[in-house]
Amino acid sequence: MSNLDRRPPARELGGTEGTPAGPVLDLLPGKEVLLGESTRVRRLLPTLGRRLVGAWAFVDHYGPDDVTSSPGMQVPPHPHTGLQTVSWLLEGEVHHRDSLGSDARIRPGELALMTAGHGIAHSEQSPAVHPRYLHGAQLWVALPEAARETAPAFAHHTALPGFTSDGLTATVLMGSLGGATSPGTAHTPLVGVDLDLAAGADVELPLEPEFEYALLAPSGAAEVEDAPLEVGAMLYLGTGRRRVRVRAAEPTRLLLLGGEPFEERIVMWWNFVGRSGEEITDYAQAWNAEDERFGAVVGYDGDRLAAPPLPPVPLKARGRVR
Q: In which residues is Fe cation bound (predicted)?
């Protein structure tokens, strides 16, 4: 999914100086953002107080939206560099097309993993005939220096591993948890897990003390250690934890995101991740010039998105928090 802001801020991310040396419980409320003409999302990363969780650099939560009488998601062709997109649906269906020729229908419980690398373009649409509700999360993973110029790729995994325990059904999107390992290719040590909690569930999740973690609540509500987590918010857990206790009084869905703190400095603007403002400028100009770097999305009926005007001020290093 694209960042459709017409005046997107430029951010310099990375470095470990903003990573706590131990556990914390910092609540990160979502910021409502209009995506396209009709879809509103809650942006949870980057946000006030936190820009990265491991290599997870961007998190949008959208829905549940009743799209019975609307076209639903309609995101025209747009570019990406230097990142992976991780698409996760709880309800609905999304038609993905990209400049590699990929053409896939993404449904709940399936992983759509697109590696932009050197450059890719894609579109995302609700099919003409689509389910009533649209609900999910769009996540970006920053690629490290060694992988950021890799060839673009797309993988669609329709079956994912997981485990059940004490009212919890866990599905592993990325990385490993509880003995289950995702087929998705990660380029840094990280984890992403869907947690489906039954009413009354009380579980302890195993964690890696070297990772930093956050929990997002797409639906329901939970108590994480002693902190409440309401729908649409994210709770940052810090580092140094070997386990975390999660309790749910009602049926609840959570997303656990974590990874080793991302040490490299990156610049993120619009749909690009690079290493300098000059690189970002080059990407934007290449996209608007229809450079072959990004290819073309075949099958989308409509115009592609143009890159918005670049910010008039130079980028400033701000670290992992602000």
A: 78, 80, 122, 124
Domains of the chain by start residue, with CATH:
11-259 (2.60.120.10)
Closest CA to 83 of 23, 2, 164: 2
Give the bridge partners for 12, in sequence order.
267, 317
DSSP H or E run through 195: strand 190-197
Q: Are 197 and 203 in contact (CB under 8 A)?
A: yes
Distance CA 116, CA 10 (A): 19
Contact call for residues 87 and 53 (beta carbons, < 8 A): no
Q: How confident is the model at residue 7 (pLDDT cuts 50, 70, 90)?
A: low
Q: Residues comprising the binding site for Fe cation?
A: 78, 80, 122, 124
Sequence ranges of the binding site: 78, 80, 122, 124
Q: Are 30 and 217 in contact (CB under 8 A)?
A: no
> On the CB side of 232, how many CA atoms lie within 13 Å of its CA?
12
Residue 317 — pLDDT band, cuts 50, 70, 90? very low
Global confidence as pTM: 0.92
155: CB partners within 8 A, 6+ apart: 111, 112, 113, 114, 183, 184, 185
pLDDT at 25 over 70: yes
How far apart (Å, rounded) are the C-alpha atoms in residues 117 and 168? Answer: 35
